[in-house]
Design a protein that fits this description.
The protein is of the alpha+beta class. It has 3 helices and 4 strands. The protein is globular.
Length: 118
């Protein structure tokens, strides 16, 4: 599994309305891109000097599904919006393994798209 983490630092002129629009776009992606297994995002609540303003954490089965997500037209709309809103974006994509093994009788919980649905 691949976890995709993106942190965004907004430009000073970004408004609440801009962020609301970004959240609406992001909220639609799990229903439009089947490869997304987990999808969560949110605004920073601490506001420390080292804080970024917004984060996205998503999970994909493998690098191929992550690449499909990145190239998907609906994701490209988000990328275009972020290029206008952000002064800095950092990302990390890492390979991870679940902490426990699912039994042979039950499906793996991280395979259930409903588990992470907002």
């Amino acid at each position: 599994m691949i976890t995709h983490v993106v942190m965004m630092k907004f430009k000073s002129d970004v408004t609440e309305k801009n962020i609301d629009e970004l959240e609406a776009l992001l909220g639609e992606l799990p229903d439009r891109i089947n490869e997304i297994q987990s999808y969560d995002f949110g605004r920073d609540v601490v506001h420390s000097e080292r804080s970024y303003d917004f984060v996205l954490v998503s999970v994909f089965a493998n690098l191929d599904t992550l690449q499909h997500y990145q190239q998907h037209p609906d994701h490209q709309v988000v990328i275009k919006k972020l290029s206008v809103m952000c002064e800095n974006i950092i990302a990390v994509d890492y390979e991870n393994q679940p902490y426990h093994k699912a039994s042979d009788d039950e499906p793996a919980p991280w395979d259930n798209k409903q588990l992470f649905k907002r």
